[in-house]
Specification:
The complex is a heterotrimer of chains A (431), B (176) and C (578). Chain A contains 17 helices and nine strands. Chain A is an alpha/beta fold and 431 residues long. In chain A, strand 2, helix 7 and strand 3 (168-173) form a beta-alpha-beta unit. In chain A, helix 2 crosses helix 9 (219-231). The relative contact order of chain A is 0.12. Chain B has 176 residues and is of the alpha+beta class. Chain B has two domains: 7-66, Arc Repressor Mutant, subunit A (Orthogonal Bundle); 78-158, Glutaredoxin, CATH 3.40.30. In chain B, helix 2 (27-38) packs across helix 3 and helix 3 (43-53) packs across helix 4. Chain B is globular. Classes of the chains: A alpha/beta (431), B alpha+beta (176), C alpha+beta (578). The B-C interface holds B 43, 46-47, 50, 56-62, 65-66 and C 183, 190-197, 204-209.
Amino acid sequence: MSSADWKNFEPVLIPNVKDLHKIDVYQENGGYSAFKEVLTDKKKWEEPKDVVNEVKAANIRGRGGAGFNAGLKWSFMPPADGGPRYLACNGDESEPGTFKDRKIFEYNPHVFIEGALIAAYAMEITSIYVYIRGEYKDYIDMMQKAIDDAYEKGFIGENIFGTDYSVDFYVHSGAGAYICGEETSMLESLEGKRGYPRVKPPFPAQKGLWGRPTTINNIETLAHVVSVINKGADWFSGIGAKNHPGPVLYGISGHVNRPGVYELPSGVPVLDLINDVAGGMRNGKELKAVIPGGSSTPILRADQLDGVTMDSDSLREVGTMLGTAGMVVMDEDTNMVDMLWRIAHFYHHESCGQCTPCRDGTGWLEKILLKIKNGNGEVKDLDLLLDITTQMEGRTICALADAAAWPVRHTINRFRDEFEARCKKSVHAVA
Amino acid sequence: MTYEFDEKDLKEIEKIKAKYPEVLPATLPVLWLAQNKFGHVEPEVQRLVAHTLDLPEAHVHGVATFYTQYYKEKKGKYVLDVCTCLSCQLCGGYDILNYLEDKLGIKAGETTDDGMFSVEEVECLGACGYAPMLQVTNGKYVNNLTEEKVDKLIETLKEGNEPEYEQIRMPLRKVN
Amino acid sequence: MPEVIIDGNQYEFDSDKDGSLLQFILDEGLEVPFFCYHPSMSVPANCRQCMVKVGTPVKDRETGEFELDENGERVIRWFPKLQTSCNTQLSEGMVVHTQETDDLVERAQKDTLEFILANHPLDCPICDQAGECPLQIQTYKYGPEGSRFEVKKVHKPKRVQLGPRVTLDAERCINCTRCVRFTDEISESKQLTIVQRGDKNYPVTAPGREFDDAYSMNTIDICPVGALTSSDFRFKARVWEMNQTPSIDISNGKGCNIDLWTRDNLVLRITPRHNESVNDYWIPDTARDAYTIFNENRVSRPSQKLDSEQVQSSWNNAFATLAEQIERTDKDKILFVGSAHASVEENFVLMALSNLLSGSAPVFSPHIIDGAGDDFLLSDDQAPNTNGCRLLGLNELTSEDLSEKIKKAELVLLLNDNLVDREALQSSVFGNTYVTMFATNKTETAKQADLVIPITTAAEHAASYVNVDHRIQRTVPAKETKYSNRRLDIEMSEGRLDRYGTSFDNWVTEENKVDCLPLWNIANELSDRLGLDLRFENSRHIISDIAEQNPSFEGVSFQAMDERFGIDLTSIKNRVKS
């Protein structure tokens, strides 16, 4: 199905089925058959690595923001040696503008559980942890219930479907830290520590949780595995954009009439998402700018959006990224200085403080922007801001510094007039 | 005052520990358990957690201060975490925060004299499509806030009732 | 041997031994700035200061040979980002550009320093760390010219008494986490943690808890800024006003290697000196407290008991009195008591006197407290030279036996050992015995003596000590006595003041010189008066004499000890046996 044909797309991750979160309803709708098939149909799935290959062929690009081929990531796991191996499912969802995985927890938790179980089997994993941000208290409870139900049905636990495959599945709650969405920081948090991202190498596939091989996948990424098994890699890779295929949970927020999470093929035109899917601009205002995939992805001006589609290739051409597909829409009244200061404030608040450029850079960015916002800025401050972003980017253990730097650089570059005007209006005290 | 875990808590803690191959990972869940029981994780409670798990006190302290949801000091009965981050800012999060501050007569970070309410300005809570919004004491989300809805929430809480879980349906996907 | 190319120069490395690129660079005598890395601890790579550009040669998959370009040069695949050299592992053919040859690397290091300094208070003029501060030094070398940080700095707790011995200034902290890693990995007290996050974070103990780790002060040394300072030493002296002299800890049998820091003939602080075979980079806090024994309560000028009261005497009087006492006492009524708290050389000199004057070797009573030590750098043995006494052949006695011996003697010559203070002896045992003590400090024991002759401490003489592991190590004089002179004493180490100072330096005074002599000097004087055939040149000669006479010390000399950072005597023993 092409991206242009998105209006005819039937959701697979969160179909419109009443009470799908209940395990019986999920099963009535074909649930857990994919998991059963990979475990028991030895003709089709001779070995676990056949599953890895199928998922690799489907090219599910990680939905957590990095966009790495999930099957390829799975193939990095070293051969099983009889010791414990882990799957850590990333439900930390904290990037401003992103609110999609909670929909899976609420409406179709079992598609995620089943996907995680298939992934675990494919990588010969012995324990699964799902890390959910602490603020999602209600969804944590929902997930725990769903997991308990799946244990009861025998989909999780010892000798699943009478095979010799056994796996455990646990929920781990975060406690308020954006950085724990970074995969190695999440591992540290799971291990009960302060969420400091780890130095790589070693990569988690070599040394992850408790020093053992570990794979980390986003919730939505794992949920997609089920339809890949059910409908085949070709079906999945045939949906939407060629290099970033499959259905995507788009989160649309900001100044639109109908914000929310929509499941559509990848590669939907940005303007279609705003004008059709989300019901157009609120109060009939003009569109001013869009952040396409969470607060770290570079902002686009309205005049940059013609023909731009929500996939990695198209977005790269206009100098931004798909990220988490959490789109933030801004109307003509939006003050870019205030908006950018708020983003900078977020990253300053969330920097773990481990690496120097991020710890001291994020604060510096915010303080200069606050100065400009408060009417005390000078034009030279804008160049200093740009300089600081260059000094931060690519110099730290994890990507938080990059995530803090990009919006500052691109918002200033793309709305320079507005920033300069604010600076020139500033009144400076004369000594 | 001295804080203690009872038999039931200790059983729960054993269950938590069983989820992990070592004790350290129990730090976060047991801090949660303690906060749910005592309402905060002040230093005395952190110490209790450390001793119960036989972990260094400094470790528990370091963890407690890293994560924002743990209350390192006593808070009001209801903690109103108002999101003002990106989408909420765009949709009037600061207006809601200011309204709430005026209504309760306190600033963000403060607690009302009667100990009922604390107001906090918080970062993105992952409800961007339902902005502006707030969270009540690490629990229920209250979405699409208006001044009227804030008034109603405060009334509900004052009456001693918890807010209801607001289910937000997946919006219609087909638009023609 | 595999090779690595750094700034265009080839270096061979040992793939078994060399791992970290940064450590290799340092070992080769090159420099890349860094803060968080420490060779004895885990590598968090968090300061981001040691950035370099790294590339690896491309290998042909089939042949395993390096691919060559049209000029016959190896094709290098560069890492897309700069790498922290601390956690970069050396590999065959790796190509490295440091700040010396790469502008981007130079810029990155400058950028990181600008970030570090953004929230740093820049209070070097009042900071104890100034002068030995890696941040200060590296800022001068690699940092930005000025500051572009014109907004408000983060404020954090200052003057926090973390524990009895360590003071924290959280604003100076650059979050390298060395102190936290030290308590996690080295001392294992796990008393410290980083709290908060982002630019608000800093190291501290759990609320209401003291940082009373027996090794707490090592965090002061490894702190790369002035965030952790010594509560005791704070504001006492600037680093550049002091002389730094290598020495050996005499407060415990472990023999930790230390540096004595002196000014105006006072020892102001003690810091660890690296010795992989003994104490690595660390010393217990008690070893630092020991500096007071060099300064305070010193015996200066001999004193004699007159009407049961000690009064100051002259050297001439003291020698005359002692000679007279020796001459008038029967040989078998004279008892020489050696000391595990004194050096090999001092005990040897005493032994020489003892053999001539009493006809037998001195006795000594070890100072061992069972259970007082730990598994790390504190041994049960509280004295620095118990094994030295044993190897010299002194007669080891229990304190009871020693008491009996003393009671029977008429004249006791006691080498510096505070037997009464450490409750090895009751003061009553001395009874009518005439006691001469060669003492450094005015202790309870010294008070019992009829004649007190002041001798030099480990801070004032060159002398050797054999530790609990049979390692012989030596001290170097660090401060002058009334009769020594920095510039004339060949044993004395040269400090910055000696090299560059003048007599007009207004911070130098000639005070605090103790009126005491090395024991060998006293022995010479005594042998002159008694007509003995005994003559000592200096400690350097004495240890060579010992090495010639006593097979346990074969091959030992100051020079050998200096070259090998001390000598393991068990290896000599084994060699002698075989």
